[in-house]
Every structure is written in C-alpha cells, then in structure tokens.
Amino acid sequence: MLKIEKPKILVVNDDAASLLALTSLLDMWADETNYEVLAARSGQEALRQVLLHDFAVILLDVNMPGMDGFETAEAIHQRARSADIPIIFVTAFLADEIDRLKAYQRGAADFLFTPVIPQILQAKVSVFVALATKNEELKRQAAKLSQRSTELSATNKRLTREMEERQAAERKNNAKDEFLAMLGHELRNPLSAISSAASLIGMQGAGADTVTRAKAIIQRQSQHLSRIVDDLLDLSRAMSGKILLAHQPVDVGAIVSACLDTFKATGRSSPYSLTVELSPGWVSGDPTRIEQVATNLIDNALKYTQAGGSIAISVAPAGNDIVLTVRDSGVGISADLLPQVFDVFVQGTITLERSQGGLGIGLALVRRLVELHGGSVSAHSDGANLGSTFAIRLPATQAATLPVPVALQLPGEPAKPTLLLIEDNDDGREMMATMLGAYGYPVEHAADGIEGVRKALTLRPQVALVDIGLPGIDGYEVARRLRANELTRNIKLIALTGYGLAEDQRRVLEAGFDMHLVKPVAIQNLLDAIDQCADAETNAG
After folding, report:
1. CA-to-CA distance for 221 and 183, rounded, in angstroms?
2. How far, in Å, are 29, 79, 84, 110 from residue 135 at the CA level?
3. I need a labelling partner for 264 at 20 to 30 A (CA). Which of 62, 105, 349, 467 fits?
C-alpha cells in the first residue's frame, strides 16, 4: 500500500527559547491532528528546508537578524514549487496597517502575536493542516483518475484495434471465399471445355473439321489452365520472397513493344483504339518478370475496357526512373476500392456471369514484382466508368552494350537424340511419348523409378526425362543412381516436376540433374531443352 506522508509544519525563529516553545506546543497536538513539526533557526535554514520538503504552513518570525521574516517569505514565494505555501507571521508587537500591508504583499496568510495563545495557535494550524490534507487527497484522486483515464484510453485503443483487426480478418475471409468461388469457376470452365472437346473427338462420325476445332479448344483451354496455375504459384512465391530475379540491363520499351505484338497477334487488342509511345527505358531487372508486369497491366486494361474504348500505353524516363503508364477509358475504379486495388484477391464488382474472368491476383502480383525490383506502382481513377491509370516506376540504369552479331554456319541437321521418359502418370507418359515420337525422337519409357534405372542401364539413352514424384524411388534417387554408375554417368538428365520454387531447383541440381522444367511444359520449351542437352553432350564428346 502507498505510504501517505503526514503534512509538515515549519517553525522559523532565531530565538532558541521561542523556537522551543512553539515546537513543543505544536508537538502536543501532532498525533491528534496528524502532522509533523520541523524547525529552522534562520531564514537561510528555512530556505534549505523548503527545498527539501513541502509544508502545509510555515510559522515565520518577523524579527530575525540577517534575513528577516519579510525577506524570507519573499524568497520562499519566488520559487514555483513553494509559491503557494501559506505563511503565518509571528511578531512580538501589534503590527500597524502599513506593516500588515507589507506582510500581505510578501505572501502572509495570517498573523500570530506573542505571547502566543495555545488555542489560537492550534485553531489556525489545524485549518492549514486540514487544507493540506484535503489538497493531498485531491491530488491522489486526480492521479488515480488520470491513471484510470490512461488505462481506459489504452483499453479503448486496444478494443478499437481489435475491432479493426477483426473487421480486416472478416474482409480477408470474405475475399478468400470469393476468391475460392472464382477459382472454382475459372477452373471448371476450361475443364468443362476440355472434357466436351475430348468427348467430341471420340464420337463416331466426327468430321475432320470438328476434330480440328476440338483439338484447338483443348490446346487453348490447357494453356488457360496453365496460366491460372502459373499466376497462383507466382503470387505465392512473390509473397513469400522466394522469387529469384535474374538481373540484367533491360529495355522496358522493347519489352512492352513485344507484349503488344503478342496481344495484336492473338487479336486481343483489335477492338480497341491503341495509342502507344515507347521510348527506350533501361532498368536493371529480370526480363521475364518485367514482361509479366507489362502483360498483366495491359491485360487488365483490355479486360475492363469495353470494345471501342481507348487505351494509351507509354514508356518514358522521369528523373532517375523509367515510368510505364497504362491508361484506359474503361469501367474505372470506385473510391472505396482504389486504396485496395493492389491487395491480394481484390477485384471489382463480381457478377455471376464472370464475363471478364480472372482471379483478381494480377495487380497484387504486379505490385510485388515491381517492389522486388526496387520500384513502385500507383493507380488513379476519377471514379466508376471514368477510366483508370496505372503507373510503374523503376530505377533507371545504363543502356546495355549489345554484342556484334556473328554469322553462324549451320551444319546439316543431326540425328535426333535417343530419349528415355520416366513418368508414372499413364496418360501423361503416353501423350508425351507420342508427341516426342511425332517430332522424330526415338523414345523409350518407364512407369516407375526402378524400371527407369533398369532401362537406362540397358538402353543407355542420350537424354532421360525424369518425373520427380515417382513411386518406389523418386526422381532424385533415380538421378543419384544413374550418376553413380559408370555406364549411365554421362546421360543428360532433365527433371520434370510440378514444384517450381528455388529450393526445388536447388535439390534437383544437387541430385545430379542437368536441367529443371516445371510442368506443364510447353512442347517447344521441352524440345529446346532436349536439343540443348544433346548439343552439350556432343560438344563434350
């Protein structure tokens, strides 16, 4: 429990007998009135006591040598902490009006005349002690109220913060629920088209044109599914900081130009009025990721702009930055959505028909990729149906010095390398083997790791395509066993896996693979990888 100090009374008198008499009288009532008595023999000693203690009242002798009572009182009241201490002047004569005025001007609260009448002394001192006690109590109450107010304020802030966090969590949960619903819709649509096209191909009497259209649908929808998976994986890697950038000097203007060529080739941009101003803009970055940023921004503009609308795309230097700007005349962004437009899973008004499609993660991925490059992204819109503007700022760097082209002499086309495909998925193995065979590659295949190692020892292929997730022994163990055997040590190994993080690539290379490809692999990328491995083997030989 907090110890409460007793109020203190200071008696100041240069006469020892008078000082003893006053302090003795006061000590008689100290326990009853609950106070403590201190004494001083001079004005200077009184000032030292005032520096050390707070007093309920000071009994101050007027006639003292050196510093008299008036001077002592004035000095006491000049100090802020002791300015309000009541002073009772003790004098041996009846003060006239001039002396009283002088005393009051020096801060006197009252007078006592000697010889002192004990009852008057007790009455006057008791009043000031009671006032001091009451003031101290009020101070304690005020301190408690202040502490309680601080605690209530902190509690209120904590409750407000918890409410905001709960509301934010609810918004995120709702956004995730909506995202899962969108994901289900986005996956089911291409899967439904693929399933229908596959059934159509198998129907008796299906014409050649029908089969051709069905095959095109399967290819197109498979690519769409691949893009969805890639977006999800890229976002996951970007948010967890697992994307590794291959920095090099990159011309943003050239990349955006290439992206636009792709959109034009597919007919995506034909219904729109495009204005393009692309200046050379060199940055230090990963060309694949910067292309991804540009593609997402342009795709976003196309997606949310009605046919016949206008889209302006520019790349230009601005101070120490290169700025990519995409401006459209589309549906715009509402004021409440604008601050969240780069958040994960945020999308505009969701409708049942989902005519615009997408998962609502493109802009979140854009922001994260730009931040990984040390840049910034911003969005502006004057409101619904008033268009949108997105701006990407990346730190500028020196232009790359391009090497002088060297004419290459192409030899006659070499024989295709022999391949071993180790894949446990029957459909995937059959389709890939058939496709590689159609491109002229001699292909043998195995359904598990043990069979794959056995066939590699028997056939000695030039290149082995190995799935990582195999039954029996996985792809890592297959690679280790092939590398450990003198007969198979020089086979070029390409890992085929659905795991594409940097850690997965590291494990693949440590196991002895030469290359790492992430499923689904575009056929041209697979052919390029096989030829690259075969060329490396030829050069090594």
Report:
1. 15
2. 21, 19, 12, 19
3. 349
Check: CB of residue 109 under 8 Å from CB of residue 124.
Answer: no
Residue 382, CB-side half-sphere exposure with 13 Å CA sphere? 7
- CA angle 536/539/541 to nearest 5° reads 110
| 203's tokens | 């129907």
Q: Provide the token pair at 177.
A: 């629920």
Per the CB < 8 A criterion, the answer to whether 288 and 282 are in contact is no
In three-state form (DSSP H/G/I as H, E/B as E, the rest C), the secondary structure along 47-112 is HHHHHHCCCCEEEEECCCCCCCHHHHHHHHHHCHHHCCCCEEEEECCCCCHHHHHHHHHCCEEEEE
The predicted-structure confidence for 15-57, as pLDDT tens digits, reads as follows: 898 899 899 989 989 888 889 999 999 989 999 999 999 899 9
Helix (H) / strand (E) element for 422: namely strand 419-422
| Encoded tokens for 445 | 């295949």
Distance between CA atoms of 17 and 21, rounded to whole angstroms?
6
Cα–Cα distances in Å, from 520 out to 224, 225, 388, 529? 11, 10, 34, 14
C-beta of residue 88 within 8 angstroms of C-beta of residue 57: yes
Assigned superfamily of 248-395:
Histidine kinase-like ATPase, C-terminal domain (3.30.565.10)
- Cross-strand partners of 492: 463
Q: How many CA atoms lie within 13 Å of 411's alpha carbon, on the beta-carbon side?
A: 3
Domain 419-540, CATH homologous superfamily name and number: Response regulator (3.40.50.2300)
Intervals of the chain under pLDDT 50:
1-3, 348-359, 403-410
At the top level of CATH, which class does the domain 8-116 belong to?
Answer: alpha beta
Q: Which helix (H) or strand (E) holds 467?
A: strand 463-467
- Would you list the domain boundaries of the chain? 8-116, 248-395, 419-540
**Short-list 511, 414, 520, 410, CA closest to 464:** 511
Quick one: angle between helices 118-202 and 208-239, nearest 10? 160
The secondary structure of residue 115, as a DSSP letter, is S
Count CB atoms within 10 A of the CB of residue 471.
10
Instruction: Give the Cα separation of 432 and 445 in Å (integer).
Output: 10
Please, are residues 463 and 491 in contact by the beta-carbon 8 Å criterion? Answer: yes
| Domains 8-116 and 248-395 fall in the same CATH topology | no
Interval 446-504: pLDDT, tens = 999 999 999 999 999 999 999 998 888 999 999 999 999 999 999 999 998 877 666 77
Concatenated DSSP letters for 334-393? -TTTGGGTTSTT--S---TT-TT---S-HHHHHHHHHHHTT-EEEEE-SSTTS-EEEEEE
According to DSSP, the residues that pair with 325 across neighbouring strands are: 314, 391
